[in-house]
Amino acid sequence: TNREKLTPLHCCALFDAPPRLSQLLMTHPAAKEASAMANSFGATPLHLASAQPGVAQTIATVVAVGTPEAAAVKDRLKRTPLHVASQNVHATPNLIKALAQLHPQATAEKTQRGHLPLHLAAQSQAKESVVK
In terms of domain of life, where is this protein from (predicted)? Predict the structure, then answer.
């Protein structure tokens, strides 16, 4: 990691690297551990990928770095990647479904402010197809 505690997987998620690069990194023996590592803000690569404006195009990256362990990590605001994606106006139903399948309990977990992913989606004026 660097001084911001970013792993190569964090960088792939942040800088919209080709999904193949994330897939290649995930073949490393330490990949499962790295996918659940939090940066200095408590965000995993999965949190970062879920927050990207181009997330509809980078669903392959989300799937590549998505592990049940990473999907269960909460950032400093007590948000799982599902919470983060629920706040992303660019999130797709496929993204929400993939994250919910990785960590089903996240649908009932509250953030620091007491919000469920459904609350965050409504606040972000998510499309009806995402909320379902």
Answer: Eukaryota
